[in-house]
Design goal:
single chain, mainly beta, four-stranded antiparallel β-sheet, 2 helices
């Protein structure tokens, strides 16, 4: 199904703020159904399903209470530090903050890289490494300049919290987008680790250049599987080609801004489509996800893109949205505070200004709830106590904690 927006000016503005467009609320949304998957309505507000039957509700009717914990300047990502009451928060301008969750006090971490803060670029993801408990290693992503162009990179460093001023020691780039290109959009640069802690997964956007996503000689428009030092992981689908091709795990991606593993080790991704066609994908090694040759959305300005269809050679999304919601993050819940949602995915919506729940059932997915949050949601994380924390995408974006109603 297609929808259209009129006017190139709207599309140009969206290119800097999320690269998917919104439209008036439709009478029905589309969810790609798979055999054996139960369908559910996708409308704002409460949508009961088998996994969240009769939850407790707050006075506003939502099944959670929202508490503001602080405000940050253009926050992009957050990470809870294992074995402590502290967390790290990135701000797109380049600042990395260490927050004490017991006191609410935040201090700036020294030793961060110089970033290109333009368009969608800046300081991006932050994730404690699999060995953090032993060596305080953290991984972070950002956008760097080079040759008049720009590209995303991933680095790793030791987080040193001794003394009054935390800092990053030994920061070193271990992966780069190749090639660097012009423009300031679709960097993606989300980071995730395999459940066994052996591999680093990185999403690499196609930088609004379209065809590189189908070209296996570069790493744009791809999801990469790497060793912890940034070298290509053994056994990758295109290892025999050598070079950057050996990094590639899947391809045909546009702008993947969420990566998360479920309890059974499946990798899921949330991906921004063009004008419509935002996606939740189950990532399979060697699979081609179609961009820019197939999408359930349309080009800005209304030009047609062939829809995903059986037999087209492309891996279709498990769930898609028309009109756009602009998924900015992805989390799969495993906590105890909301047992009715255990195993479900949560998506932070930017243009949709919502928190969205997606029912996951093995390799199947269907839309669940969509709660209006009144602001662009950039990041969603599960806290150690099972509460859900979200970051708003705003010049003074709030850090919010969601807990069950009393």
């Amino acid at each position: 199904m297609r929808w259209r927006l009129l006017g190139g000016a709207i599309a140009a503005a969206l290119a800097l703020t999320g690269c998917t467009a919104t439209a008036p609320t439709p009478t029905a949304d589309q969810s790609r159904q798979v055999p054996g998957a139960a369908s559910s309505a996708d409308i704002p507000g409460q949508t009961p399903s088998a996994s969240n039957a009769s939850p407790r509700t707050a006075p506003d009717g939502r099944p959670f209470v929202v508490k503001e914990l602080g405000r940050f300047t253009e926050p992009w990502a957050m990470a809870f530090l294992p074995g402590s009451d502290r967390m790290l928060i990135t701000q797109r301008s380049g600042a990395l903050l260490l927050r004490d969750n017991a006191t609410g006090r935040s201090v700036q971490v020294q030793g961060t890289p110089q970033v290109v803060h333009a368009g969608q670029g800046g300081l991006g993801d932050i994730v404690p490494g699999p060995t953090f408990a032993d060596d305080n290693t953290v991984y972070l992503s950002w956008v760097e300049a080079g040759g008049g162009d720009a590209g995303a990179v991933v680095g790793r460093a030791t987080l040193n919290t001794s003394g009054d001023t935390p800092r990053l020691d030994g920061l070193r780039v271990i992966w780069r987008q190749e090639p660097k290109v012009s423009g300031s959009g679709h960097f993606s640069h989300r980071i995730a680790f395999s459940p066994d802690g052996r591999y680093l997964f990185v999403s690499s956007g196609e930088r609004q250049k379209f065809q590189p996503a189908q070209d296996l000689s570069n790493n744009l428009g791809k999801i990469l599987r790497l060793n912890l030092d940034g070298t290509p992981a053994p056994g990758n689908p295109f290892a025999g080609r050598g070079g950057v091709s050996a990094q590639i795990y899947s391809y045909g991606h546009r702008n993947v801004l969420g990566l998360a593993f479920d309890a059974d080790g499946r990798l899921w991704a949330s991906e921004m489509g063009p004008q419509g066609g935002d996606e939740i994908n189950l990532i399979k090694p060697g699979a081609n996800y179609g961009w820019p040759n197939a999408s359930d959305g349309s080009q800005y300005g209304g030009a047609d893109i062939p829809d995903h269809k059986p037999g087209d050679g492309y891996e279709a999304p498990k769930v898609f949205w028309n009109p756009s919601i602009s998924p900015g993050s992805l989390m799969i819940y495993s906590g105890d505070l909301f047992p009715q949602w255990r195993g479900d995915a949560f998506v932070g919506a930017l243009s949709g200004q919502a928190l969205i729940r997606v029912d996951l059932d093995g390799e199947n997915a269907t839309k669940g709830d969509q709660w209006d949050m009144g602001q662009r949601i950039r990041a969603v994380k599960q806290a150690p106590d099972g509460s859900i924390w979200i970051l708003e995408d705003a010049p003074s974006g709030r850090l919010l904690q969601l807990t069950p109603p009393a």
